[in-house]
């Protein structure tokens, strides 16, 4: 086992990575613009308050960021005295530069906007009784009282933009929690010396009531789960076809489509009057022949043209060499899985970094957990797409890098970790008060590490790299350089003895092992690729 090397028994340990939203579907809700109404009781009431979203518009001036916010419009508040109804309009738009400076552009910006709007909204309420009840404190946050109106404003904006999760097995989860609750909160050690029979009846009643509630909630969640997991319909399919693949009898129709010509001008800087027509006004077919990759977009044509174009292809899959999906990513992966399972060689994803500075914002206090729920199931779906030699590359920054690594280890297995690529994203520090970061990460995992490594194309060394290589023995395979045969650590199958040409037996030095197993060593020895120092 090595010269004088003591052996220490060890036990392999496995850590189970868990998070609050594990085994839940992450649902990215789109922006839904529906009215929101509530009723309050006050003197002369009841009164009705309705939040109405006006037509969303981008304000003039210099907009900053990509996050849109709900802006109440106090000057347009309407009061219907006869119906006792207050109507508060909203705009949903990008903030202008002054608003970004005042409110910020992350998840707290929306709360700041609503807080600033409350006094002006209350001033616009003609009814003193309604104004008083809307101004009443109803909640508290960070030692600040939240009025009833502000609380409702927050609810309105939150329910339009919040993400939520659906539990995959809510009944099982709640039943496990119920067992813990009964043991920890209802039954106590002192009950063993008291009226244990009475306490057991209490336990039974609580258990049965809770089970009825669990059954009811689980039925609702199961419906949500089935709706979410059901494969969605394709709403629309368009095709981008190179002009060389379009039948020539359709070319004239293509050139008569003003929208298509405008797109070519925008994308490829083609001037239709100059390039597509000759001096006599006839179509310049030679120009189209010389530019065979001009793309015809069927989205710009009617259904009749699209059907005639597609019918010209015997095998549409054969002539289409790419696919672009505009969809919620989980649903897109589910849709593509049947056709592309185990067919993909490389996957690269650039997920939301969860920094709070983009559209991926959370309203709950389990931010990392919600992000992990989103990433976990999408990575599991991606695993099915990769063939055995495939690999996945995932960009991330410091915010979630550690958590992402653990999810990838869970999905792909620790043994399929390839490495981490660091790339420099800026050359000057950011404005962090302590230490600025200038790099991001790309986590790399393989479907099967050995096959992934075997399938990679090796990059030939350049002349600078080859300078360290020599060929003193004129090896026909080219220049070479010696590398040590030992590696740090202890691996039982790499601790074999090696006998040199002079009969000396060597074993790995303390704290190290050979860098290969014995069969690999014997194969290299047979090829003459093991070099022994003179006199060794």
Task: Write a concise keyword list for the protein shown above.
536 residues; alpha+beta; five-stranded mixed sheet; four-stranded mixed sheet; 18 helices; disordered N terminus
Describe this structure in words.
With 536 residues, the protein is an alpha+beta fold. Helices cover 37% and strands 18% of the residues. It is built from 18 helices and 19 strands. The protein has helices spanning 97-103, 108-123, 128-135, 148-161, 170-186, 196-229, 251-255, 258-268, 272-276, 285-290, 303-310, 316-319, 329-340, 367-385, 401-412, 449-455, 463-466, 518-526; strands spanning 24-27, 36-40, 47-53, 69-72, 78-80, 85-93, 137-141, 144-147, 164-167, 240-242, 295-297, 344-349, 386-396, 417-424, 439-446, 486-488, 498-499, 505-506, 512-514. The strands form 7 sheets. Strands 2, 3, 4, 5 and 6 form a 5-stranded mixed beta sheet that branches. A 4-stranded mixed beta sheet has the order 12-13-15-14. It is extended. Mean pLDDT is 83; it is low at 1-12, 58-65 and 361-365.
């Amino acid at each position: 086992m090595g010269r004088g090397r003591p052996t220490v028994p060890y036990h392999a340990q496995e850590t189970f990575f868990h998070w609050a939203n594990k085994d839940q579907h992450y649902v990215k809700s789109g922006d839904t613009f529906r009215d929101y109404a509530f009723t309050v009781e006050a003197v002369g009431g009841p009164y009705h308050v309705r939040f109405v979203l006006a037509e969303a518009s981008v304000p003039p001036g210099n907009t900053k960021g990509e996050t849109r916010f709900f802006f109440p419009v106090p000057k347009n508040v309407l009061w219907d005295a006869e119906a006792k109804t207050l109507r508060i309009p909203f705009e949903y738009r990008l903030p202008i530069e002054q608003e970004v400076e005042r409110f910020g552009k992350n998840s707290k910006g929306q709360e700041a906007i609503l807080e600033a709007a409350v006094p002006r909204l209350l001033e616009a309420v003609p009814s003193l009784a309604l104004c008083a009840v809307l101004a009443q404190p109803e909640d508290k946050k960070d030692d600040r009282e939240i009025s009833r109106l502000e609380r409702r404003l927050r609810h309105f904006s939150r329910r339009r933009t919040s993400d939520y999760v659906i539990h995959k097995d809510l009944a099982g989860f709640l039943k496990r929690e119920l067992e813990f609750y009964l043991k920890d909160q209802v039954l106590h050690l002192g009950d063993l010396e008291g009226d244990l029979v009475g306490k057991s009846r209490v336990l039974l009643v609580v258990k049965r009531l809770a089970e009825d509630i669990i059954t009811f909630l689980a039925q609702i969640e199961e419906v949500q789960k089935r709706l979410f997991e059901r494969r969605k319909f394709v709403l629309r399919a368009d095709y981008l076809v190179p002009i060389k693949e379009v039948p020539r009898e359709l070319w004239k129709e293509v050139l008569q489509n003003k929208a298509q010509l405008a797109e070519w001008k925008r994308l490829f800087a083609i001037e239709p009057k100059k390039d597509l027509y000759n001096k006599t006004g006839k179509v310049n077919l030679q120009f189209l022949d010389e530019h065979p990759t001009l793309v015809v977009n069927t989205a710009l044509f009617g259904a009749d043209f699209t059907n005639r174009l597609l019918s010209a292809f015997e095998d549409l899959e054969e002539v289409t060499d790419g696919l672009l999906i505009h969809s919620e990513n989980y649903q897109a992966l589910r849709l593509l899985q049947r056709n592309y399972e185990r067919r993909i060689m490389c996957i690269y994803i650039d997920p939301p970094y969860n920094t709070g500075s983009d559209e991926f914002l959370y309203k709950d206090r389990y931010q990392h957990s919600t992000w992990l729920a989103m990433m976990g199931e999408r990575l599991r779906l991606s695993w099915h797409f990769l063939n055995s030699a495939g690999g996945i590359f995932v960009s991330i920054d410091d915010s979630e890098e550690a958590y992402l690594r653990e999810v990838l280890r869970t999905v792909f297995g620790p043994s399929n970790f390839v490495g981490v690529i660091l790339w420099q994203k800026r050359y000057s520090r950011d404005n962090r008060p302590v230490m600025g970061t200038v790099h991001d990460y790309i986590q790399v995992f393989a479907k099967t590490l050995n096959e992934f490594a075997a399938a990679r194309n090796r990059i030939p060394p350049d002349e600078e790299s080859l300078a360290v290589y020599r060929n003193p023995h004129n090896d026909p395979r080219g220049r070479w350089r010696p590398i040590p045969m030992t590696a740090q650590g202890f691996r039982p199958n790499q601790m074999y003895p090696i006998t040199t040409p002079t009969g000396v037996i060597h074993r790995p030095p303390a704290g190290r092992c050979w860098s290969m197993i014995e069969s690999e060593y014997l194969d290299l020895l047979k090829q003459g690729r093991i070099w022994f120092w003179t006199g060794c």
